[in-house]
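Why do we care about 3D structure at all? Because function follows from shape, and shape follows, mostly, from sequence. That is the central idea of this module. The next example makes it concrete: a single protein chain, its amino acid sequence, and then its structure expressed as tokens.
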Amino acid sequence: MSTRRFSNEQIKVLLKNPNAEGCSEKSIKYSKSFKVAAVREWQAGVSPQQIFTQAGFDTYAIGKKKP
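And the structure:
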């Protein structure tokens, strides 16, 4: 399990993303529509990093291995 913690500033930025329904210091709750679309794209061969980047997430902040 990751020990990564989001700062208050990172949480504010994440909550502005329409693909995130909620965020705490330890986790992100993604919208159902994003989760469904992300799985479809992944099955089509798109990398997780590319999926999250295209969705407006900072992969450095959430972790390159986390998505």
